[in-house]
Design goal:
With 229 residues, this protein is of the alpha/beta class. It is built from 7 helices and 10 strands. The longest helix is centred in the last third of the chain and has 18 residues.
């Protein structure tokens, strides 16, 4: 069974973060390894507390997870520049594809990555990942996302009947994926999409196929189930 390493924060409500990532891996039949970066206290109503783990502890978790080998890595909430640096160092030399969801703030608007963390993400991590998956708000706050080898710019925060995701590779628009836009605000969609892409890369799909398939899967889930993403 293919194995994906999830590096992310917790969400006790299960709506986002590590819980949503692990659910996505299970639905794709992919096994998991984990490294927790931040403990959060949040519900659908908002985030009331965050507690980052020590960067050395984050790095030690990653090292332990890599012992068994992984076919892909998905990164979510990193909280601070120190944790970003620890993750960069811990993943040095890892050949597996790395998908980064550049978590900046929660759906409710709470800041989850401080200013120095945003700078570190853009300068030290984004140029090293295989794919970054910002939404329109995240690319506005962190334009350095475009420096990744590939970027899936998500159109969910746009307007119009269709939501259009754009796949950019080496600064060139390679593909667009258009799907019906769903009304309402849902949590954890970014987590689920990035994890689904990582799963598909781990299973051997090429980047464009993985991005399109993951987006179609998520769109179907949102339309068909009552659980909030």
């Amino acid at each position: 069974m293919s194995r994906v390493l999830i590096i992310a924060g917790s969400d006790p409500s299960g709506g986002a973060g590590m819980a949503r990532d692990l659910e996505t891996l299970a639905l794709h039949g992919v096994s998991s390894a984990i490294a927790l970066t931040t403990i959060t206290v949040q519900t659908d109503a908002g985030v009331t507390a965050t507690h980052p783990l020590a960067p050395t502890l984050v790095a030690a978790q990653i090292a332990a997870a890599l012992v068994g080998g992984v076919a892909a890595v998905k990164i979510g909430l990193l909280h601070s520049a120190d944790i970003v640096a620890a993750v960069v160092q811990a993943l040095d030399g890892v050949a597996a594809p790395v998908v980064l969801d550049p978590v900046w703030r929660s759906s409710s608007g709470a800041m989850l990555l401080d200013t120095s963390g945003q700078a570190a993400l853009q300068q030290a991590l984004i140029p090293r990942v295989s794919l970054v998956t910002p939404n329109l708000l995240e690319i506005a706050a962190m334009p350095g996302c475009a420096a990744a080898a590939a970027m899936l710019l998500k159109g969910g925060h746009g307007v119009g009947v269709q939501a259009v995701d754009q796949l950019w590779v080496a600064g060139t628009l390679r593909a667009e994926f258009s799907r019906p836009r769903h009304s309402g605000t849902m949590r954890g969609t970014g987590c689920a999409l990035a994890s689904a892409i990582a799963c598909r890369l781990a299973l051997g799909q090429d980047l464009a196929t993985a991005c399109e398939g993951a987006g179609d899967w998520l769109n179907t889930r949102i339309a068909a189930v009552s659980v909030k993403f």
